[in-house]
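User: Can you predict the 3D structure for this chain?
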Amino acid sequence: MKIFIKKLTVLLLSTTFLVGCEKSFLEDPVPTSSVSDVVIFGSRAGAEALLSGIQRNFRRQFTRTDAGGVYSLYMARTVKGNDFIQNSWYNFDYDNDNREPNYTRTTFNWEYPYYMINQANTLINGVEASTAISGSDKTELIAQGKALRAFFYFQLAMEFQHTYTYDPSLPAPPIYTDLSLEGKPMSTLQEMYDLIISDLTDAVAGLDDSRLGKSYVNKQVANGILARVYLVTENWAGAEKAAHDAYGGDIASALDAGSYKDGFDKISNIEWIWGMPQTTDQSNYYYCAPHAFTDHYNDGYFGTYVNKDFADLFTDSDVRNTFDRTYASASPTDWFYLTTRKFTFAFDSDIVIMRTAEMILIEAEAKFKQGMAGDAHELLFALQSNRDANAVKSTNTGDDLYEEILVERRKELYAEFGVEWFDAKRLRRGIPRTGNHRLPNSFLLPDDKKFFLKVPRKEIDANVNIDDSVNADR
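Assistant: Here is the predicted structure, written as structure tokens:
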């Protein structure tokens, strides 16, 4: 990664540490590119301004429409599954044929997380070295940086290797905890998850519930990320506690069924734990996913459709049933038969990253896996009855109850972060293509290599510690 890290380091230094406009920078902590490191780490306000820039880059226009920010990672995962059908940008992801070393998806899914990790490392290292920031402020700021670093290493772990339980000794992307001019060799999944979990437990310990806004990390968000990680590593007790702490344990106050059909475009929604806010003057415009693709009523790409088999899982009285027939003449066998109104697209549509309902379902799954099936069923039905006034508690037990929890995750979280792909990968299951798919033969088998990407050609060319053999048998 020598050339790549050098490029990122120069870019980061040139956009973060240039001298100028220090007074306005401190008065208005928004993304900026004209301040020195002395100013940034000379006060808490300066470090928070750097955080603002990092959070802005969650929704940036990084490369192109299907390779912009965090939302691009999530949208690509969504269309790799069975529940949605794609016919515009993200087509190669929908084909499950977008993993070669020179492809945009492979390069972006490597470079973007590392770009964000470099920024998180700049924050962590700068705050640690500061003599002007108080000890308590250092603890909180470093905790935010570690949570962000863990979040993006988690994306790399998910994108560039089999899941953790397949074999934790397998090669994983290199680990950097400092800015570096030299590329490092590949790590292992075990080493990467050790760092991720260490960073997140530090973050949980160092944060409280306060924050500058919902785009920033607090204890609730750090617990939510940790709950997702523990699902992958199958630390069920850890997942239960982290998820419970992330949503607070009070389902009645954590959910608002009436807002489910409001368009998923407002970060102020009580169910949103973490999100990406947008304004018309700081919009990512048509890059916005899933909104610009799934919304067939406002100007966008009109590129994402719903598998009829998935829509058939919902009752008419379920608030999550947001599906419409696309055209009066469309047939149920047409791949363009159904669309969803879940997401409303505008240039100021906020983008969700994490919600309370996900945490409730993680807690339910974790309880089930620990032998507390009755408690798991109660949590599941509490969510189901919130979403559907006519819901009837199932009589499922054992494996049938577990499958019901997993189906509920798909029904609750569709098109938000690729939940179907996420669950199939961590549980080492395949994803069939059923119903009215445009490409029914582009399915995924259990432990399919198509669940992860090859190491980018640019990395191999730039890093003296990685050569062509890294992609052997990938």
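Strands lie at 84-86, 171-172, 187-188, 272-276, 304-306, 323-325, 338-340, 351-355. The first helix runs from residue 2 to 16.
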